[in-house]
What we know:
By secondary structure, the protein is an alpha/beta fold. Helices cover about 45% and strands about 15% of the residues.
Amino acid sequence: MVKAVIKGVTVGYTDQGNGTPLVFIHAFPLSRAMWQPQVDALANPYRVITIDLRGHGESDTVLWNDTLDDYAADVIGLLEHLGITQAVFIGLSMGGYTLFSLYRNYPDRVKAMVLADTRAQADSEEGKTGRRAMAQVAFKDGASAIVDLMIPKLLSPTTIQKRPDIVNQVRQMILHTQPAGIIVDLMAMAARSDSTDLLPNISCPALVIVGEDDQATPVTESQYIAKKIPGATFVTIPHAGHLSNFEQPVAFNQTIRSFLQTHGLEQGR
Ligand code: MLT
């Protein structure tokens, strides 16, 4: 694990392999550790970069009023630190929301994008109320109280029943997230812009992936995104919930590989 100081914030990241840079942006309330199956499988023939957003994993704490635009700016700051101009970005759920912000603000940096288990709409009023309630739980009782709320949203019932190893790894990731990081994520997600108008203007190759049992951002949300982005590819991952990359890494990685090959984005291109 290496760290860089980006705009005064110490950021944990990994940078492995050679080839086209693939930059992975994690979900709420996790860390870059959720991308380990992708680092293992894709670093060589690709350059795989994962980042801990502020307040997560090995990165410094957040400021109380950070937004998803700040998270996107950190990702671009890391690329500048690494001397990378353009990359393929992969964002899952909150990582997808951050990717919408990144595309809105830095479209020239995006060679292609993968939107996994995410949604384009902003939060409803009911959704915002739920975010505030969860932030209060994190404020009062810490990350351990968030574990039980989030595991059923992140993983499919079958994974929860049959894969205690996966459940435990996700639990550990949540426990390692600072309560301040959890709270700021929730407020930042509640305040995020609606990205539906952006979709028809996305002109890079796009892949939309969703776990067939995703409860947090159901299949219909991803179908909607894929229909609105010109030329987007849509893939459903069987036997996966919201964390499709972690629950079914073989299918997820294969989907990314064939997308990159189809668009001539494999090694060295
Ligand atoms: C995530 O996985 O990042 C969250 O479920 C996103 C959300 O709560 O909207």
